[in-house]
Amino acid sequence: MVNNKIDVVTLGCSKNLVDSELLMRQLIANGYTVEHDPETPRGDIAVINTCGFIGDAKEESINMILSFAEAKKRNKLKKLFVMGCLSERYREELLEEIPEVDGFYGKFDWKSLITDLGKSYYKEWEFDRSLSTPSHYAYVKIAEGCDRTCAYCSIPLITGKYRSRPIEEVEEEIRRFVGKGVKEFQFIAQDLTYYGLDLYRQMKLPELVERVSDMEGVEWIRLHYAYPTHFPTDLLRVIRERDNVCNYLDIALQHISDHMLKTMRRNITRQQTIELIQRFREEVPGIHLRTTMMVGHPGETEQDYLELLEFVEKTRFERLGAFPYSHEEDTHSYRHYSDDVPAEVKQERMHKLMQLQEGIALSVNEAKVGETLKVIVDREDPEYYVGRTEFDSPEVDGEVLIDKSRVLEIGRFCHVKINAAMPFDLMGTVSV
Ligand code: SF4
Predict the structure, then answer these.
(1) What is the Cα 409 distance to its own chain's centre?
(2) What is the structure's pLDDT at 259?
(3) C-alpha–C-alpha distance, residues 383 and 380, integer Å
(4) Which helix (H) or strand (E) is 363 found in, with range?
(5) Could you tell me if 353 and 293 are in contact, meaning their C-beta atoms sit under 8 angstroms apart?
(6) Contact present, 47 and 83 (Cβ < 8 Å)
């Protein structure tokens, strides 16, 4: 007899998380008790939503599947299902290698998992999600897929062509969330800035953000995964003019040397990148920029790398993440280049870049000491309340540690006087 409990485990990015939340809503509608990312799996059924875009992520997904397969062999689990990017990309291989899995689903056919369980797919809950995030913020996926041709990237192979969601559909989803008390919306996609080109034949991100910003109850909108080429500059006006659009932009640049930007097929030059960043800073004073850099792509010389370091030192991104190149089958780089930068050189370049960034992050934070900032309270820890400013995206950026001089409510905004800075976090007291 299979009990009614299902464990759903999500690996990878926030876009995967949205799919898990959509699935969980349907499972709950079918009477299941669902637990997300349980410490110890308790259900008789488990669903692993996998990530498959680079080596480390693939390894993590396979290890997770194997650990649940092991539990099944020991009769601790009755049914095991796998979905998401890894099985979208390697379904045939996985079917052969891990026979303990009862069903493999890709990135877009997870709905058939519900019918395979002998249950119904509830169309009326199509846009409803069982949130796994704190109930005051939610990720909003405005599109699927990617039409860009970055040489190293396997994502278009997994997710297919760009598909924008109609503006009305995004608005409807947000209206429902506001009705449930969600205040903060993280806009995500593989490529946010391309939004609308497929569906409306023009870039519609500025209009979408402005329309959502007009909606009652929307307190914060934060923008992630922008792409630099053909950037819709009217978006800068919207960020500047709208108080509920965070003064924040996540835009992956990956590199700066013309040699590497060309090799990586980023369709932008060093000079164009520098001019774009300058425009951000001029048109949106105080904007906090998050970027991602890649080190060790085939062909990256010491000179290219030093150019990247110098650029990061000069540009002073408020937030920066970096990762080493991963040699991914079927990508342009895999077919045309050998993975010629040694692993230890990749690690050393990562390390030096993040060391430089840590110093920059600290000085960015130190400049906030003495300021009073609007903070949303995410949780209560033994010593502090923990929150974020408009410059902090959940999971990837720093936090604000607020002393307990006053009782605060989770999910509410407050104003915090910053009295200390650390490389990534701030400390402060609620100001009345
Ligand atoms: S924009 Fe480039 S890096 Fe990002 S998902 Fe598309 S192809 Fe990959």
Answers:
(1) 26
(2) 98
(3) 8
(4) helix 343-366
(5) yes
(6) yes
| Global pTM value | 0.96
Strands 163-164 and 184-188: unpaired
Helix (H) or strand (E) holding 220: strand 220-226
Secondary structure letter of residue 194 according to DSSP:
G
Question: Helix, strand or coil for residue 201?
Answer: coil
CA distance 287 to 400: 18
227 lines ligand 1 (CB under 6 A): yes
Q: Which 8-state DSSP code applies to residue 337?
A: -
- With a 6 Å cutoff on the Cβ, whether 104 touches ligand 1 is no
Question: Which of 153, 192, 227, 268 for a ligand 1 pocket mutation test, highest count of atoms within 8 Å of Cβ?
Answer: 153
Pocket of ligand 1 contains residue 143 by CB under 6 Å: no
Closest CA to 426 of 395, 385, 381: 385
3-state secondary structure of 66: helix
**Radius of gyration of the chain from its Cα atoms, rounded to whole angstroms:** 22
Q: What pLDDT is attached to residue 38?
A: 83
- Provide the pLDDT for residue 39: 76
DSSP of 231-299: --THHHHHHHH-TTEEEEEEE--B---HHHHHHTT-S--HHHHHHHHHHHHHHSTT-EEEEEEEE--TT
Residue 211 sits at φ, ψ, to 5 deg, of: -65, -40
Which is nearest to 313 in space by CA: 296, 343, 293?
Answer: 293
Instruction: Identify the pLDDT of residue 2.
Output: 57
Sketch out the chain's domains with CATH numbers.
Answer: 2-125 (3.40.50.12160), 137-366 (3.80.30.20), 372-430 (2.40.50.140)
Among 14, 154, 191, which is best to mutate for testing ligand 1, by the most ligand atoms less than 8 A from CB?
Answer: 191
Successive 10-residue mean pLDDT values, the chain, 432 residues: 84 97 97 90 92 94 96 93 97 96 96 95 92 97 97 96 98 96 98 97 98 98 97 98 98 98 98 98 98 98 98 98 96 97 98 98 98 98 98 97 97 98 97 78
Question: Which 8-state DSSP code applies to residue 432?
Answer: -
Which helix (H) or strand (E) covers residue 261, if one does? Answer: helix 258-263
**C-alpha count within 13 angstroms, C-beta hemisphere, residue 405:** 11
Give backbone dihedrals phi and psi of 60, rounded to 5 degrees, phi first. -60, -40
- Written as six digits, the tokens of 64 are 């997770």
